[in-house]
Amino acid sequence: xxxxxxxxxxxxxxxxxxxxxxxxxxxxxxxxxxxxxxxxxxxxxxxxxxxxxxxxxxxxxxxxxxxxxxxxxxxxxxxxxxxxxxxxxxxxxxxxxxxxxxxxxxxxxxxxxxxxxxxxxxxxxxxxxxxxxxxxxxxxxxxxxxxxxxxxxxxxxxxxxxxxxxxxxxxxxxxxxxxxxxxxxxxxxxxxxxxxxxxxxxxxxxxxxxxxxxxxxxxxxxxxxxxxxxxxxxxxxxxxxxxxxxxxxxxxxxxxxxxxxxxxxxxxxxxxxxxxxxxxxxxxxxxxxxxxxxxxxxxxxxxxxxxxxxxxxxxxx
Amino acid sequence: xxxxxxxxxxxxxxxxxxxxxxxxxxxxxxxxxxxxxxxxxxxxxxxxxxxxxxxxxxxxxxxxxxxxxxxxxxxxxxxxxxxxxxxxxxxxxxxxxxxxxxxxxxxxxxxxxxxxxxxxxxxxxxxxxxxxxxxxxxxxxxxxxxxxxxxxxxxxxxxxxxxxxxxxxxxxxxxxxxxxxxxxxxxxxxxxxxxxxxxxxxxxxxxxxxxxxxxxxxxxxxxxxxxxxxxxxxxxxxxxxxxxxxxxxxxxxxxxxxxxxxxxx
Lengths: 317, 265
Description:
- Chain A is of the alpha/beta class.
- Chain A has 2 domains: 2-214, P-loop containing nucleotide triphosphate hydrolases (Rossmann fold, 3-Layer(aba) Sandwich); 240-317, no CATH class.
- Helices cover 32% and strands 23% of the residues of chain A.
- Chain A has helices spanning 40-48, 73-79, 91-94, 101-111, 117-130, 136-140, 149-161, 179-196, 207-213, 231-236, 241-248, and strands spanning 2-11, 14-24, 29-33, 56-63, 66-67, 84-87, 167-171, 199-204, 216-221, 224-230, 299-303, 306-309.
- In chain A, the strands form 2 sheets. An 8-stranded mixed sheet of chain A has the order 6-7-8-3-9-10-12-11, sandwiched between helices. In chain A, strands 2-1-4-5 form a 4-stranded antiparallel sheet, with helices on one face.
- In chain A, strand 11 and strand 12 form a beta hairpin.
- In chain B, helix 5 packs across helix 6.
- The longest helix of chain B is centred in the last third of the chain and has 18 residues, at 184-201.
- Chain B has a 6-stranded mixed sheet, sandwiched between helices. In chain B, strands 2-1-4-5 form a 4-stranded antiparallel sheet, with helices on one face.
- Chain B is built from 10 helices and 10 strands.
- Chain B has helices at 54-61, 84-90, 101-104, 111-121, 128-137, 154-166, 184-201, 212-218, 236-241, 246-255; strands at residues 5-14, 28-38, 43-47, 69-74, 77-78, 94-97, 172-176, 204-208, 221-226, 229-235.
- The interface between A and B is large, with 39 and 43 residues.
- Chain B: This is ATP-binding cassette domain-containing protein.
């Protein structure tokens, strides 16, 4: 469905993304986790052809058989909504506040698929039903501010699904939602991906939400994927020091950890232009080797479908 | 009376706009008969979704709002019986940290000025040393007092907010989603800092969060709110080990990395 090869995004001399490789098959659900500044949103945007003008991109992207490498805006427009669609963290900001939500969702159906008004309307009601919006007929006529956060996110998902995309990119779709609502939205995304055979890229800083939603997980740091593999494998036996640090820094839920200090990754994520040329994590890494800062580690297999990019892997420890 | 903070059956109602000319809308009960106590040095966690009344409760504890019913006793004194001037004096002993430090720090004032604000409020005007001490204590450079909020990262700004909160040597800190906006690795640093400060100064905390894993690491007791009412209240470890309601169980499931299969949808 999506094949991205060696994607690098530059702003001047700073690299926001470096050498990203991604493949997604139909129905596959990939979770992308990382902290602010890790490049996860930039990756989502690059798969939509929505990078800011100042960004320079290299590498190849194929989406559902179409080569989008160096594609112009017009060719991206031709595949957005129909092949790739995206949903965002804040549905209130993504929906036109002055339009009834039903009309908003009708728009791509009329524009891209050339549906008649009646056909589009019927399809919207179907979509609302599919995404679990209660009382679709009444909701059709409401404005975004009249809906709850969860309902708004469902409307946005309906909008994204309107033209039956092959790939859905969800950038922090549950971050602004309450726990109960967030659980239902992730369940919905899983169901939709399964039923429609749609590939899902689920971007989040919330490890728990990714673990619930995705089959595979890619951990990003400093614009690179540092570790990738099946969710269970990555979470139960992380190989990259950053993944390990990230998992340890999460407070444990079990008893007996009250006021137990958390193991901390020292320092903070450096600014894009201050990243090391070698391993991006060098400088904060507890098990750093002398050549880490200058030599870029290759991604190596550490288990079944499980890779990590660290000089320690394979080296004598 | 060993409680530092004693919340006694507080209720807070907000009038709602009329939808019909002839029928007044019933008031929204944001907090409904909630009681809780915090002993010195202890932490009470308040969890619940948006609209559950967490923040309203915190605002009543801080004296920003007055309960319609019930009392908030701090060190045995009813906060809402005090005059405004007396409340200002008492407030040195209880301070607040907010979710968004960028929103709670004046962008046009130096960090040092903001951190010294609670000291000025109680009449301490020569406070340069105190500000430097407290900035150092939260892991910042004492010279950072001359810089401005926009020069700092999110985690550092939250350190500044914590420095301001502890500047007047309070006995209680009310933290409203204080670590929710932070990345995992930074959040761990801030949680550790709060634990250190708590032990060093014997601070009690009222810690509001929607993330049960954070609450589990910090809180002795737990109050789960829903729609303004108490859903569960008791020792944190007991509630986390065996939540009595599905509501709490779902909050717990959301914080888990490996959700047990069959999570309530």
